[in-house]
Amino acid sequence: MANDEALAKAREEMKSIQPYTAAARSGTNYDGKGFRIPFFNRVFIVYYPDLRVEEEGNSASVLQYIEIILLHYLLNAQEATIGSEWMAYRQLPGSALFERRFIQMAMQPLQRIFGDDMEAFTSAGKKVGGVFIDHIGDAAFKFMALPNIPLAVIFYQGEEDIPSSFNVLFDASAPSFLPTEDLSLLGVYLVGALKKAKPA
To answer: Residue 153 — very low, low, confident or very high, per pLDDT cuts 50/70/90?
Structure first.
């Protein structure tokens, strides 16, 4: 579905939500005028019922795909247990349709951006708001993409003829909050943010 169609459909569906219920399920705050939604290390406001979207402290227009993700998050969020298990993207429901794009736009770029440079990866992870995870890989961070959607990025240091590698993992509860296609876009966004945060 084209972004214009997806956005129009999401806006139409938003007209029938119960805002306080949506806020409770999504872990966001609704103050009677709009939803305040943390998105990685940024914060967006989705005004309701007029459905205008803006970023706190930034007057620039919100990218359309981010607006779609925010609306889908409010529409899809269900009660679920978070933090029980990490999953690779290929393990998510319906991932076969989007896995190639995820590899090309998230997994492979991570390798190109950081290569064997664990120090650069660690610095970038901290700048993007990552929380260090112990006992997994050689360096790993958890990022809160949205209030109930943690992502993890793991760095495995190479040795001799074996290059370093990376993995992006999703909490097993993620499909309870967003469609699998949108989850791939969260990974792509995160890799772009890490690239911008890489030390010069």
So the answer is: very high
Query: Length of the chain, please?
Result: 200
Reported as a single tens digit per residue, the pLDDT across 167-184 is: 999 999 999 999 999 999
**Residue 46: domain span:** 3-76
Strand partners, 60: none
pTM of the model: 0.94
Of 27, 52, 76, the one marking the end of a domain is 76
- In the chain, the largest separation of any two C-alpha atoms, in whole Å, equals 58
Tell me, yes or no, whether 9 and 56 share the same domain.
Answer: yes
Residues 107 and 72 in one domain: no
For the domain that residue 146 is a member of, what is the CATH number?
3.30.310
Q: Strands 139-146, 149-156: parallel, antiparallel or unpaired by DSSP?
A: antiparallel
Same domain, 68 and 93: no
**Residue 191: which of 108, 118, 134 has the closest Cα?**
108
